C-alpha cells in the first residue's frame, strides 16, 4: 500500500515535469500517382491520439512529447503503414501508401512495447472489430477460432474459453482494459466472461508471455483493446443490431463517445443479448443451451501535454443454461423459450479500472489499477437455492517505467501485484473449494532494441505467490469440508516463487522477408481448484479432488517463423516446441462418491509441438479478388510414456475466397466472401478419451455500406455451417455425451453510425 501511495504522489508531482510540446506534421500521398489521400487515419496508439488527413492529404498532431513513437497510417483500400517517428527529427513528413487488398502489418500493443506486428519477436495475431461484425458468433471465442493456432473449449455457445496452441484453462491469461481479468476461469464449465462490447480489436499472443503478464500467461494472452477516443471536438455514436437464425438470438448494442478541445474524453456503451436453445444439424433441439447477457460500460478521461489518464467501469451480467446429460430430452422445451431452467449459472462482474500515462522528458511512466468483483452462482436443484456460490474480489496493479537508454534501445522496469480473495456464499448448499486468498507480487526488467533491420527483446522476472486456504468459516465446518491432510487449524498455506527469462529477435532484411525467433520461459502456479477442490461441482455431475502438493508448471517454448511477401501474395510459416514440466491435467477415476464419478487432477511432464502455415493471395491484376488459406496443427503428449494429452484440438485447414464488387447505386464497397474449415479426424486421443471424426464447415459472408438519405449504414449477412452438418467437436465438453454442435446459422448485423 505504501508503494501505491508513493506512486500516486509521483503521478501528481511529475505532471510539472512535462516535456516540451511538439508536433508531427505531414502529408499522405498515393505511392504511384503521388496524389494526396484525404481521410487517412493517422494514429499514435501510445497516446490514444489521432487525426484524419484533410482534402489535401495533410495532417498535424500537436502537443506531442519529444520521444520516439510508433505511428500508424491506415485507409480503406491501402496497405497499413507503421513508422517510428520522433517530433524533433521529422517535420513536413511525406508518407506514401500503396493500394492493397489485404494488410499483413499493423500496430500491436500486447507485447509491452508498441510496435509493428511484423517487427514483434513475439507471435501476435490481431482480430479486428470489422472481422467480428462481418462474421459474428454467439460466443466471442468462436470468432477468435478462425485465427490459426487458436481454438476453444466450450459448453454450448454461451460458455467457452480460449485454447492457444493446445493449452487452455488457467494457462491463457485474459487482459481487459490493460488489467489482468480473472473470474473463476479454472472451472471447466466457466467461460471467458468477456464480451465484444466497446472493443476495437482483440490481440492474441501465441506463446508464453509470463515475462510481461505473470502467472497465467504460460500459453499466451487474449487482450481486448478498447475502442479509440472520439476526435477532439466531436461526438460520435453508433447502434449495432444483430440477429441469429439458429438460436433465434439477438444482440443490441449502442454507444456514444465524445472529446472536447481541451482534452476531456468520455464514453458510454450498453449491450443486451439473448439466445434460445440451438438446433444441431439434424434439427434436434439441444435443451438448455439458452443464455442471456447484459453489459454496461462507461469511462471518462483527460488528455494533456503531460500525458493522459482514464477511469472506466464495466458491468456484465450472464445467465447461462447448462446441458444436463442425464436429462437431455427433458430440457428441450418450445422453440423460442428463453426462460431459465435448471441447471444454470448466474454470473455478475463489476470491473473498475484506471490507466495513467505520464511523460517525464523522453521517458514514460504507466500505472494501471483494477478492482474486479465476481459473483458466481451455480443453481442445479431448485430455483430458490444456490448450489455453488462464490464471491471473488481481485485488486491488481501494474506500474512500469519506460526509459530510453540510447537511440533504438529502451528499457522497462516494473512491479506488478494481484490480490485475490475468494469466499463461499453462506447460503451455498455445496462447497467445492475453500475460502482462500492469493497474493502475487513481482518485479521485472525488459529491454527492447529496435533499429534498422533488427528488433531484439529480452527480459527477466521474479514472482512470488502466497496462497492461503481457510476452511474455518462456520458454513464450511457445518458442511464438513476437509482440506488435504485435515490440518487442525483448518488452514493451509502454499508459496510459489521463481525467476523466468525470455529472449527473441526479428530480422527484416528487406520488405519481402521477415524472420522471427523467440525463446520464452513461462510458468503457472496451480489454481485454487487444482490445489484444494474436494466436493461436487454442480452442473457437471462430477466430484472433483485437487492436490495441495502440486508444484508450479514451468515451460520453455521455442518459436521460429518466416514470412515472404510480394505484391501479389504472402506466405508465412511458424513452428514451435513447448517443453513443460509438471503439467496439470484432469481425468476421471474408477472411484464413486455417491452417484458422482470422482475426477482427480494429476501432474506429469509434457510436450506440445506443431505450427501454422498461411498463404494470402491478392493479385494486382485483379484487385477485386483475394484469398487466403491456413493450416494449423498441435500434438500434445506426456513425456513419460508419449501417451496423448486430453483436449488437444484436431488439425485444421481454413480457407477463404473474397470478392470485392463495384458500387451499385446506394451500395458502396459491396463484397462476397466464401469461407471453409476442414477439421481433421482427432485420433490422437488421450487415455479414457474417445477419438472424434473430422468434418467440413462451409460459410458465406456478404455485406455493403448502404447509403440511406445520404447517411451510411453497414449491413453484414453471414452464414455458418451452410451444409447443416451434424458433427461433434473434440474440444466440446458436450462431446462425451454425444451432444452435437450448432447446425446451419445465418446472422444479420446492421451498424448505424451517428
Automatic annotation (TrEMBL):
Its main location: membrane. Residues 264-722 form the TonB-dependent receptor-like beta-barrel domain. The keyword Ligase does not apply. Pfam families: CarbopepD_reg_2, Plug, TonB_dep_Rec_b-barrel. Residues 117-221 form the TonB-dependent receptor plug domain. Keywords: Cell outer membrane, Membrane, Receptor, Signal, TonB box, Transmembrane, Transmembrane beta strand, Transport. It is a multi-pass membrane protein. Residues 1-18 form the signal peptide. Gene3D superfamilies: Carboxypeptidase-like, regulatory domain, TonB-dependent receptor, beta-barrel domain, TonB-dependent receptor, plug domain. It is found in: Cell outer membrane. PANTHER family: HEMOGLOBIN AND HEMOGLOBIN-HAPTOGLOBIN-BINDING PROTEIN 1-RELATED, TONB-DEPENDENT OUTER MEMBRANE RECEPTOR. Belongs to the TonB-dependent receptor family. This is TonB-dependent receptor. It comes from Belliella kenyensis.
